[in-house]
Amino acid sequence: MTNHSEMMSDVQITELLSVDPKTKKIHLNDKRIVLMETDALGELRKDLISALGVDRAKGFLLRYGWNCGVNYARIFKSFMPANSDTDWLYAGSEIHAITGDVSVDIEKLHFDPDTKAYCAEGYWHDSYEAEQHLKHYGLQHDPVCFTLVGYAGGYVSEHLGRTVIFREIECVGKGDPHCHWIAKPAEDWGEAIQDELPYYEEENLAQELDRAYIRIERQNERFQKVLLVDEQLSSALLHRKGLPSIIRVLGKQLGCTVVIEDKDFHLFESYGPYKEHDFAHFLRNADEQMGMLLNRLIKQKRTIELSVPEAYGWPHQRLLSPIIVDHEIWGYLSLLKPSGAYSEIDIMSLERAATICAIQLLNERVSLETEQRIKGEFLDAILTGDGRIEHLSRQLNVLGYPLNQPHYVLVFQFAPLAASTYARANRDMDEIKRALSSVISRQFKQTESTPLISSKLDQIVALFPTRMKNMKYLTPQHMAQIIVETFFKQYQDVHLTVGISSTCEGIEDYRRGYEEAKKAIQLSDFHHSTSSVVSFSDLGFIPHIASGDNFDDMVQFSYHLLNKLIQYDTQNRSELIKTMHSYLECQGNVLKTSRMMNMSPGSIKYRLKRIEEISHIDLTASSAFFDARLALKILQYAGKIEL
Q1: Is 408 a residue whose pLDDT tops 70?
Q2: What confidence tens digit (pLDDT) does each residue in 432-467 have?
């Protein structure tokens, strides 16, 4: 844009500044001016707001700025005539260049010298007022450049001979990227400016002080009410009454509906009259203005106020404040009422309650983490034979964990699938353990039972009570299968096997249960079942005599003993192995065997004779009888034969 200061025909404005070498006085032409530090002006501003309140201080600063603008306009007119009125209007921004108040960028300016029609729009950069207000008060709900608004209006109005009002529509003081203003004659603003006009009216200082005293008294009353709310909120926190009690205190004191929502705006808790409505959908359809408010709420973590229309299920006015836990937004605390603006007390009380909620949630998180740590240490101590078992047992008793009732030990072992595109090095094992622990905890939360969980390399060991409150008839195998299926939905590239011990009656049995669960997993590779859940109790006597190291030898021995019979059945499609199994299960009773196989006793005797001839096993001998039965069990368990 054209630099209109160059259009001043006689002299540059900066050439009018001079400093007297003797007196050190600074003059703008023949008028004395002074330089003031912005921090000093900021302190003055703070004192005015403290004494008069924001509204009264705004009026004082706006009128002060207006008078400054008028005086500067008169000074320039007295000694520096310009070629046109438009030049004078642009020259006002040059004064700011001298004083350092702000940098002005005029985007558009329309002026008719004949009709005095006027409108302008532009930006202020590096406003000292916004800078000082942020320093002392932080972000505000409304624009804060009161003196600059007044100065600009006074300067232009003096030149035009009619009242021109400047309004900030964006301000750095309320979190906007810049200070954006629009200027029009008062009558052109219409109703939009009616609330602003009283700030321009002169007031008697004595009356102002009287009103300030009344405001201070009212402020004190409000402060006392906020203190009462804070006291009750703090009491609810100290007595560990939880979030429902906290929002009940807030709702009763303020006479509003109070809700807590998670970070996705799903309802968590509520107090007072509440109607179902799609608030999240309302936010997803935010326009530009509401988008700025949401940015302030979510990004800047500040309190905002919104009007929810009837189209989303429940028309109401909502005041929201974020609940911040560990520097992250956990959720939102809101006040809801049918209509009307919220007061300063409402805002202060809501923000204080949001802080109390954050402390409550943090306490619960720390308490839960401490409890889980103690439980994990206790389980580790049991499995490793650590001498701290007695001390940790007392701690668990204090936490209310029922160590005196029977439990199962479950071992969850995981590894990336062989066909997975993820190599073990590329899969974060800690991430898998955290996810699996979360799945286990969530599943047992439904039963109102809390498992003891410990992470060990590629395993998670868990101690589950045999009796669960809400799922009396749920077996540990069924529960483990639900956990496996839930986990697999998230981690399809990870193979999970669960070993379940037999019942452990007390602390002294838990180590034995751990070994049983591990052995069940070790032997699961030989089992014919494709299930990911293996119970030690379902394996019969096999796990008691076999381990992962010697089971191959046992399979080879069994196959060598029965190999000829297996081959004969395969070649002749006979059922000698099945007949032997039935005979052994019937304890060598031919009559019972015939009934089991629905055959005549003579046929059974003939088959037994053929078995002895082919295998050279004398089933009448006790040792051969035992060996044959054990061999059948092992081959059946290993999936080598089907009976």
Answers
A1: yes
A2: 777 888 888 777 766 666 667 777 767 888 888 877
Q: At what angle do helices 576-585 and 601-615 cross, to 10 degrees?
A: 110
Residues whose CB is less than 8 angstroms from the CB of residue 492 and which lie 6 or more positions away in sequence, other chains included:
none
Residue 625 CA: distances (Å) to CA of 75, 103, 602, 643:
124, 104, 21, 18
What is the structure's pLDDT at 426? 45
435: helix, strand or coil? helix
Name the residue with tokens 């590239």: 493
Among 130, 317, 344, 370, residue whose Cα is nearest residue 225: 344
Going by DSSP bridges, is the β-strand pair 533-535/494-500 parallel, antiparallel, or unpaired?
A: parallel
User: Are 401 and 452 contacting, i.e. CB atoms less than 8 angstroms apart?
Assistant: yes
Identify the bridge partners of residue 436 per DSSP, sorted by sequence position: none
Residue 495 token pair:
């193979």
Predicted model pTM: 0.40
> Which of 45, 77, 78, 37 lies closest to 64, judged by CA?
45
For residue 618, the SS3 value is: coil
Alpha helices in 287-428 (DSSP H): 288-298, 344-384, 389-398
pLDDT digits (tens, 9 = 90+) for 458-509: 788 888 887 765 555 678 888 888 888 888 888 888 888 899 998 888 777 8
Joined tokens for residue 590: 């031919």
Report pLDDT digits (tens) over 101-147.
888 988 888 888 888 889 999 999 989 999 999 988 888 888 999 99
Mean pLDDT value across residues 320-342:
90
**If you count them, how many residues does the chain have?**
643
Max Cα-Cα span within the chain: 141
CA distance 547 to 552: 9
The residue written with tokens 């190999």 in the block is: 563
In whole angstroms, what is the distance from residue 621 CA to residue 86 CA?
124
Measured CA to CA, the distance from residue 359 to residue 338 in angstroms comes to 30
Report helix, strand or coil for 461. strand
- Our measurement of the distance from residue 186's CA atom to the centroid of its chain's CA atoms, rounded to an integer in Å, reads 48
